[in-house]
Amino acid sequence: QVQLVESGGGLVQAGGSTRLSCAASGSIFAINLMGWYRQAPGKQRDMVALVVNPTRTDYGDSVKGRFTLSKDPDSKTIFLEMSSLKPEDTAVYYCYVQTYSSDVFWGQGTQVTVSS
């Protein structure tokens, strides 16, 4: 089992920046993939940023160049730096983990609202 605790988010003005964090605990040795997804009202949950391997992070097309995923090298904590925010970035952001045995775990979600 992997537990994920997210923090950050809230209300941000368009053009502004904010940062999310996600701390993993439990069976962190089993983590293969770790990243962020988001879900806007009435829409499907989409990938935002995903650490695929130690040298590669994939980003969703709509956030490339604006969002950056970083990692704490000493722990299983990741951060999502979000800049040049747009109203369409408004969503619930979920931390995501997939283990080597393909089990998937989600954080509780944190709301990000971008006002125009």
Description of the molecule:
By secondary structure, the protein is an all-beta fold. The protein is built from no helices and eleven strands. Strands 2, 4, 5, 6, 9, 10 and 11 form a seven-stranded mixed sheet that branches. Strands 1-3-8-7 form a four-stranded antiparallel sheet, with no helix packed on it. A hairpin with a 4-residue loop joins β9 and β10. The radius of gyration is 13 Å and the shape is globular. The model has no long low-confidence stretch (mean pLDDT 95).
Low-confidence stretches: none
The coarse silhouette is globular
* Biggest pleated-sheet summary: 7 strands, mixed
Order of helices and strands: EEEEEEEEEEE
Q: What Rg, in angstroms, do the CA atoms define?
A: 13 Å
**Beta fraction:** over 45%
Count the helices. How many? 0
Distance between the termini: 40 Å
Q: Share of helix among residues?
A: under 10%
Counting helices, strands and paired strands, the structural category is mainly beta
How many beta-strand runs? 11
Q: What is the residue-averaged pLDDT?
A: 95
